[in-house]
Amino acid sequence: MVKLDEQNREQYEQLILDTLQAGDRVQFRETFLELHPTDQVDIFVKLKDDTRERVYEYLTPEDFSHIFEGLEIDHQKRIYQELDENYSSEMFNNMFADDVADFLAVMTGRKAEDILKKMNKEEAEDVKELMSYAPETAGAVMTKEFVSISSTDIVSDVIEKLRNDAPDAETIYYLYVVDHLEKLVGVISLRDLITAQPTEVIEEIMSTRVVSVTDDMDQEDVAKLIKKYDFLAAPVVSKQNHLVGIITFDDVIDILEEEATEDLGEISAAKGATDVNVSSFTAAKKRSPWIIMLMFFGLITAGVIGQFEETLEEIVLLAVFIPLIMDSAGNTGTQSLAVAVRGLALGTIKRGSIGKMVKRELGTGIMLGLICMAVLSVTVTIMYGHWVLALIVGFSIFCTLSVATVIGATVPLVINKLKLDPAIASGPFITTVNDILGLLIYFSIATALLDFL
């Protein structure tokens, strides 16, 4: 198998394009199929419509199934429309069940049912089972293509079984052992199997301390568990401990990417609109609820300023520092928010360490406030020649940053306690709240010291 680098990628792409245009089926298959599947996908997505037609003609449904699995969902939907029904049905039969389930989950109307009817009965049943699980659970993301063995099997028989079953399995690095009721009772690594004596019974060499996940476990918790134990795969069991599937490391990478994208969307108040391929209308529809809500929060900010109208009329110069106070509060709060959300996502914030984390953020805010207060006091005194004004601005920034860090750290913790995603304590939300508090602190101090200005 050839893996392309930047130096020979263009050469291979041109060679493959030339063989397609020349109608040389044998040369195309020989050149294209020796590439890594990922490189095959990269080249395929660059082909034009008429050229792709020849690809479908030259590649068998089994060959093309590996390419189809590597495409993004939106691209899969477009390519599916170009395929012959019989060709696509055979292609789905050769794909892993979890990849077929992911594709059918986004199909509208009765298309998913029609596809399942045309598939082999056994393959279709596996896909239906995966689709029956709640979204974002272990059952929904697991694969059904795995190798299970019996505790009474002999090593030599298992090795022979692997020769027959391994090509259709997603991974064989771990072999999961079941009893006569198909309940998970042990696990054995491929290395232990190969180094064992051919006549040994699996029950004698397997490990009975199996770390498994239940089919209704949240996918993010599954990813954390596999990361914690450095597994290449983890078995999925039912409530009765029946082995129903496995989740592999590549599934975990997809889960982490999906969760990170979701958290990024929550934090930026753009959930569902972070994909660059989303249309302007869809992006606006997804973002508008947050923007409208934050707009009303902006009215509260305006109301705070209005409450201190007399103070502003007395010393108009105070208005110059409003953006500075607001920006500093929002920026500091967002930094603490990122620390808290990341800690909750990685599971590094435990019940006993919450107080420690909040205390650390408070300490950070106090130190940042002292630094900024010192810099601003000197700068304002030099620029405006008024030490009282410098004191007001400097002490306001000190108090604001101290409070902003605590709010940025505690709000996600409170939301997490309510069993909600802490990422919904979005950056814009924390920023707006801290803006309001920063202005209240600033004008309260200024009003108290108004007689000295």
UniProtKB/TrEMBL annotation:
Which PROSITE patterns has this protein been placed in? CBS
Cell membrane recorded as keyword: yes
Question: Where is this protein primarily located?
Answer: membrane
GO CC, sorted alphabetically, is: plasma membrane
* Topology in membrane: Multi-pass membrane protein
Q: Name one GO molecular function term.
A: magnesium ion transmembrane transporter activity
Family annotation (SMART domains): CBS, MgtE_N
The places in or outside the cell where this protein is found are: Cell membrane; Membrane
Tell me which Gene3D superfamilies the record gives: CBS-domain (3.10.580.10), MgtE N-terminal domain-like (1.25.60.10), SLC41 divalent cation transporters, integral membrane domain (1.10.357.20)
Annotated ranges, domain CBS:
142-204, 206-264
Keywords in UniProt for this one? CBS domain, Cell membrane, Magnesium, Membrane, Metal-binding, Transmembrane, Transmembrane helix, Transport
Question: What sections of the protein cross the membrane?
Answer: 290-309, 315-341, 362-384, 390-415, 427-450
Tell me, how does this one assemble?
Answer: Homodimer.
Q: What does this protein do?
A: Acts as a magnesium transporter.
This protein is called Magnesium transporter MgtE
Give the organism's phylogenetic lineage. Bacteria, Bacillati, Bacillota, Bacilli, Bacillales
